[in-house]
Amino acid sequence: MAIEEQSEREWLSRDKAPREAVFFFTPLCGTCKIGLRMLEIAQAAGAAVPISKININFAPNLRDEWRIASVPALVLVQDGEPAQTEYAMQSVDTLYRLLKTFAS
User: Fold this and answer.
1) pTM for the full model?
2) What is the DSSP letter of 28?
3) 3-state secondary structure of 94
């Protein structure tokens, strides 16, 4: 299952889930591609948090407001506000447990 890419404007203007995750990436980042693939596997395995992806090059407001320091970055969002930011995409299992714990 592919993770849907959204623009900053689309993400900001839609109805927010109580808990969700946003994956920030850049198209030429190899580590981002690996992290995205791991997130897709974690999502397919049943991590119960909606995940969106946003190209950080076109998200200056979120990048600055949420203080995203580098990519890849997975931001766990609660009620529209960042609750936790992960920069190290260690493994599918780690991401799965992180998302499962955050969902509950």
Assistant:
1) 0.93
2) T
3) helix
* pLDDT in the model for residue 36: 95
pLDDT digits (tens, 9 = 90+) for 9-49: 999 998 878 999 999 999 999 999 999 999 999 999 987 88
Q: How far apart are the C-alpha atoms of 83 and 58, rounded to whole Å?
A: 22
How far is Cα 58 from Cα 79, in angstroms, rounded to an integer? 23
| 16-103: CATH superfamily | Glutaredoxin (3.40.30.10)
> Structural domain boundaries of the chain?
16-103
Q: Three-state DSSP class for 81?
A: strand
For 37-80, the DSSP string reads HHHHHHHHTT--S-EEEEEGGG-HHHHHHTT--SSSEEEEEETT
| Element (DSSP H or E) covering residue 33 | helix 30-44
Strand partners, 22: 52, 75
